[in-house]
Amino acid sequence: MSFRCKISDKRVIERPVLLAPPASTHKYARGSAIVFSGPPLRTGASRLSAQAALTVGAGLVTIVGEYEALKEHAAQVTAIMLREVDPDLAIIDDRVRSALLGPGAGISTRTKEAVLRLLQKGVPLVLDADALTSFELQPSELFGALHDQVVLTPHEGEFARLFPVIDLADRFTAARLAAELSGAVVLLKGAETIVAAPDGRLAVNTYASPWLATAGSGDVLAGLVCGLLAQGSSAFEAACIAAWLHGDIGIRGGPGLTADAMPGLIPLVLAACLDKG
Ligand SMILES: NC(=O)C1=CN([C@@H]2O[C@H](COP(=O)(O)OP(=O)(O)OC[C@H]3O[C@@H](n4cnc5c(N)ncnc54)[C@H](O)[C@@H]3O)[C@@H](O)[C@H]2O)[C@@H](O)CC1
Ligand SMILES: Nc1ncnc2c1ncn2[C@@H]1O[C@H](COP(=O)(O)OP(=O)(O)O)[C@@H](O)[C@H]1O
């Protein structure tokens, strides 16, 4: 594992410690991640996620999608690989350590089916945005298929759609109940981000900035979680570390910060976390 997660006695997430990869490492040892693309003209969100996953340290990141969508990505990315999606998801082979689905995916039966197929693969998984909202009418269908290496990353709107029975007035209790109900780690986004695991672990990230409230910011966060899962962090730790790193991106970025600029700040954030010992 590349990061040590630190949480205070008061359940506040602290600066994580980044361990440099061993001299003998190679890109597959650092972890291979898959990010699912949105359809043509909706590819930006998944691209932001993929850039964040790669920059936070996954050894390889592949964007998977339909051919016309990949053409858009090809005009924008270089280090990130592109592969056409196949119906059986054979792309999720033994080397793949994490996946992300939802940013820009579209709210549809197609997205729902893709989520359920992906969950059957058992790979550590981040479900964000439209992958959550697509289950608004039948959340139990999603909950029945989740496993404990899944991280759900709703903002309050998405949370209310997926967990209509849970009152958001107390966000700590809401996140804890949602993790229990769904059986997955829940990262509830907002000015304070709460992370809850089905086994009762709970943490909060207060180290953030309102400059993070900008379109695509959550897509970057989802990509960070995916990139950390690829490197071997557990679902709960990946969510906690990502929330802190994302907060630091916001603090460093400050006024004028856009999601496009966020991946470029990640190396500075990582350098400040690097274990010098
Ligand atoms: N560059 C891009 O391509 C971007 C694509 N995005 C994608 O656009 C799609 C829609 O995502 P959105 O999050 O905009 O919209 P949603 O489809 O989640 O709906 C937004 C609605 O949710 C409600 N809501 C309640 N609490 C909220 C909160 N805390 N934050 C935001 N909305 C809240 C509001 O009523 C708002 O009208 C997703 O697939 C997302 O990944 C966005 O992430 C923005 C950037
Ligand atoms: N006022 C705020 N203070 C700190 N962080 C915020 C604030 N508002 C939003 N954020 C963070 O910005 C991100 C927004 O994500 P999201 O709502 O999914 O946007 P998008 O869908 O456009 O990517 C979340 O990580 C959230 O925690």
TrEMBL record:
Entry function: Catalyzes the dehydration of the S-form of NAD(P)HX at the expense of ADP, which is converted to AMP. Together with NAD(P)HX epimerase, which catalyzes the epimerization of the S- and R-forms, the enzyme allows the repair of both epimers of NAD(P)HX, a damaged form of NAD(P)H that is a result of enzymatic or heat-dependent hydration.
Family affiliation: Belongs to the NnrD/CARKD family.
Domain (YjeF C-terminal): residue spans on this chain: 10-273
Co-factor requirement: Mg(2+)
Organism: Sphingorhabdus buctiana
One Pfam family of this chain: Carb_kinase
UniProt enzyme class: lyase
Protein name in UniProt: ADP-dependent (S)-NAD(P)H-hydrate dehydratase
Assembly with partners or alone: Homotetramer.
PANTHER family for the chain: ATP-DEPENDENT (S)-NAD(P)H-HYDRATE DEHYDRATASE (PTHR12592:SF0), ATP-DEPENDENT (S)-NAD(P)H-HYDRATE DEHYDRATASE FAMILY MEMBER (PTHR12592)
Keyword check for Acyltransferase: no
Xref: CDD domains: YXKO-related
Presence of the UniProt keyword rRNA-binding in the record: no
Database matches in InterPro entries: Carbohydrate_kinase_pred_CS, CARKD, Ribokinase-like
Catalytic activity: (6S)-NADHX + ADP = AMP + phosphate + NADH + H(+); (6S)-NADPHX + ADP = AMP + phosphate + NADPH + H(+)
Keywords: ATP-binding, Lyase, NAD, NADP, Nucleotide-binding
Ligand binding (AMP): K189, G190, A191, E192, T193, G218
EC number: 4.2.1.136
Binding site for (6S)-NADPHX: A45, G104, H155, D219
Gene this protein is translated from: nnrD
